[in-house]
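In this section we walk through a basic example: taking a raw amino acid sequence and producing a predicted 3D structure, encoded as discrete structure tokens. The instruction is simple. Fold the sequence below.
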Amino acid sequence: MAEQTNNNQGFNMATSLRFWRDVRSELNRVTWPSMPDTRRMTLMVFVLVTIIGLFLLSVDLLIGAGLSWLLGLNL
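The resulting token sequence is shown next.
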């Protein structure tokens, strides 16, 4: 029977604490956007999602109408 080796794959409190210390250290280095920047970027996302959604809706309606006309369906 083969010997089992300990690969330190279990829970290790020291490693866990070091990990969370490193996470906190990295988060302190992040340059967070200001509240006005966050609002502006959020508004830009909503506007772009709306524009793209309307574009895809119009393309879908045009393709649907074209296929209905092409196949002679009265939907």
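Looking at the output, two observations stand out. The first helix runs from residue 13 to 29. DSSP finds two helices and no strands in the chain. In the next section we compare this with other chains.
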